Amino acid sequence: MITFKEKYVINEKGEKVSVLLDLKDYQRILEELEELESIRAYDTAKASGEKPLPFEQAVKEIEKEKQ
């Protein structure tokens, strides 16, 4: 789990309206989100029950779709 010290920006009413993070903390959060996205994509693909394609064939199909 990521731990960091966040800093808040408050409005004139004293309500928290934004969060300030150190750049390193922000980058770590982005990395974690990317990893989570990959895990979710894997889980979705696994649950679909479809037969996996060889990597080279998948790349060819993706390239075809781009055209």
Descriptive notes:
With 67 residues, the chain is of the alpha+beta class. Strands 1-2 form a two-stranded antiparallel sheet. Helix content is 57%, strand content 13%. The protein has one domain. It contains two helices and two strands, in the order ββαα.
- Assign the structural class, choosing from mainly alpha, mainly beta, alpha/beta, alpha+beta, or little secondary structure: alpha+beta
The number of domains is 1
User: Into which percentage range does the β-strand content fall?
Assistant: 5-15%
Mean pLDDT: 90
Low-confidence stretches: none
Radius of gyration: 20 Å
Condensed summary:
The protein is α+β, with helices and mostly antiparallel strands and 67 residues long. It is built from two helices and two strands; from the N terminus they run ββαα.
Q: Which short descriptors sum up this protein?
A:
single chain, 67 residues, alpha+beta, two-stranded antiparallel sheet, 57% helix, elongated
Produce the secondary structure layout.
Blueprint: E1 7-10, E2 16-20, H1 23-48, H2 55-66
Antiparallel strand pairs: 1-2
